[in-house]
Design a protein that fits this description.
Length: about 575
């Protein structure tokens, strides 16, 4: 119940529709019971040649119950499904709001296929919570209690027989099958996640698999995962069919028991024979409300497991929420400085430290380069500044404010960020550039393209998913153009021109530094050429800062940076 507690919150917000659906469900259920009870009584009574007015009243009641049942059933379906779809919509929004702050660090823990399975499949499963888990037992109980109360006026023994049947088919059997369903449902969800993961790997890595002649092997893995998933689904369906068959068989046995008890009571003279058919018809009809309980174990476990898998993701956001009641924001019109004091950080589920006691100071309006070998922690610094991750030890400050107290959206809004992974969406050049800022003019967008050497493109040119029709350098330049259009005062650039030729790189940096003349720029780079213009160079190695200073100071020192520069000169001169 703890896993599905969030569903109760959303159900309370739709309490009006839920109340109406339960009310009309009760009226529809009782309408059916009274309709068939009246039919059984009419048949028996008609055989005894009663007065004409008795038949007239009975037939009139028959029509009343028929109309009541039909109208109530329609209203019950309308309100219950409206509540369900509203709850599902609210759930999707809630889950997105919870998971959005976790991106992109969530991909370090979950593979994209498994995450997609949770976002789509598990959220979709929860739409059945109200209709298949909460609603059926509630309607079954209220209809049965009303029916048993009605039956008590004719026979206590039959009433107790119906009550025993309800407990057996509506409670004991579903509980037994629910306990058996737990392991099966866990396996189904795990296998579905595996299929999603393998399919994602197969599609995204198709070209590489084809080039390296590993396509057949990956295809076999996908087929094996799919076959295993199908077998688990078949096992799940077989168990659900057995549950339904057992439930229906027991309901028929209960109806036979009512008939036997009724016949005995009539023979003993404690029950009028005219009511026997009515009681049997009641027993046949009231158990229609028990039939959804046959699928209850499947839907209950399906929803519980889906909620549990989603809560594992959501729980991460809750654990990292700032405890203070007030969260500070930054003034985006100001130029921010950055400082770190003895910062240590390790990526989740890894042992190697990505940063070790790092202390840096980047004054507002300065231009700073961070250099060093791959894996030295340069990109990690940017991710801590963006609050994608939080430092285990030490403090990070933006504009003099502790970053743990700053709102993430405020940080992201005030930065022009270019990480190594940037996404281009399916659409036009215009669509992708308009992500930078609202109300951009065509002139502004075209000038941004010109500043990165993409003025041969028009704003209406088509861009495929992930920029599939563009080169690596073109994709980088589109990302830089977006940053230029955003126009914030803090620039965080991680290898922004690694796939760009030297001439275009010079054009980009000249235009970028001209626009960012008064801004704070933090550039991560493997290339050492052109760093003479930087106010400060921070050199990192093995997750630590080993040197810091201006270009001339580091060259004169003849330390680690000097060695890197000598190696670069040797490579290019050769």
């Amino acid at each position: 119940m703890k896993d599905t507690a969030i569903m109760f919150k959303f159900m309370v917000s739709e309490k009006k529709d839920i109340f109406l659906s339960v009310l009309f469900g009760f009226l529809a259920g009782m309408g059916g019971v009274l309709l068939f009870a009246n039919s059984g009584y009419l048949i028996s009574r008609a055989a005894l040649l009663p007065p004409f007015y008795v038949l007239t009243v009975t037939i009139a009641l028959l029509k009343l119950f028929s109309v009541t049942r039909a109208i109530s059933r329609y209203a019950e379906r309308y309100y219950s499904h409206r509540a369900t779809f509203t709850i599902l919509s609210n759930l999707r929004v809630h889950f997105y709001e919870k998971i959005e702050p976790l991106a992109p660090r969530i991909f370090h823990k979950y593979r994209s296929g498994d995450l997609l399975s949770r976002i789509v499949g598990d959220v979709e499963s929860l739409q059945n919570y109200f209709l298949r888990v909460f609603y059926p037992p509630l309607i079954m109980i209220v209809v049965f209690l009303a029916t048993v109360t009605l039956t008590l006026f004719f026979s206590v023994h039959v009433a107790f027989t119906l009550m025993a049947g309800m407990i057996l088919t509506g409670l004991i059997v579903p509980l037994v099958f629910a306990s058996m369903q737990t392991k099966i449902e866990n396996n189904v969800r795990e296998k579905r996640g595996s299929v999603s993961t393998e399919a994602t790997e197969f599609l995204y890595g198709f070209k590489d698999l084809k080039i390296h002649r590993k396509l057949a092997a990956q295809e076999r893995e996908l087929n094996e995962a799919s076959t295993t998933y199908i077998k688990e689904q078949e096992h799940q369906s077989d168990r659900a069919l057995i549950s339904q068959s057992v439930n229906q068989a027991l309901t028929m046995l209960v109806s036979w028991a009512v008939l036997i008890v009724g016949v005995y009571l009539v023979s003993e003279g404690t029950l009028e024979g005219v009511f026997l058919a009515m009681l049997v018809m009641i027993s046949l009809t009231v158990f229609e409300n028990v039939s959804p309980m046959a699928a209850f174990p499947y839907h209950f476990e399906d929803n519980r497991r889906a909620a549990s898998r989603l809560n594992l993701i959501i729980h991460e956001e809750d654990m990292e929420r700032v405890e203070e009641h007030e969260v500070e924001t930054l003034n985006h019109k100001e130029t921010w400085g950055i400082s770190m004091d003895n910062v240590t950080f390790t990526y989740p589920e890894e042992e190697r430290e990505a940063l070790k006691e790092v202390s840096i100071n980047i004054p507002s309006g300065s231009k700073t380069a961070i250099v060093g070998p791959s894996g030295s922690g340069k990109s990690t610094l940017l991710q801590l500044i963006l609050k994608i991750y939080q430092a285990e030890k030490g403090d990070v400050y933006l504009n003099g404010k502790d970053i743990t107290r700053l709102e993430k959206e405020s940080i992201w809004k005030g930065t022009n960020t270019l990480l190594q992974d940037h996404h281009l969406f399916y659409g036009t050049v215009r669509d992708n550039l308009q992500l930078a800022k609202d109300d951009l003019s065509d002139t502004e967008m075209f000038n941004a393209l010109k500043n990165v050497g993409l003025d041969t493109f028009s704003l209406e040119d088509r861009v495929l998913e992930k920029g599939g029709n563009l080169s690596g350098g073109e994709r980088q330049r589109f990302a830089i153009a977006r940053a230029l259009l955003k126009g914030s005062k803090l620039w965080l650039l991680d290898e922004p021109t690694s796939s760009v030729d030297a001439v275009t790189e010079r054009l980009i940096y000249d235009n970028l530094l001209a626009q960012a003349k008064e801004d704070t720029v933090l550039l991560v780079s493997h290339r050492l050429a052109g760093l003479e213009k930087m106010d400060q160079i921070i050199v990192m190695n093995e997750a630590q800062v080993v040197e810091a200073g201006t270009y001339d100071e580091l060259i004169e020192k003849q330390g680690y940076f000097y060695g890197m520069k000598e190696i670069e000169n040797t490579l290019f001169s050769a």
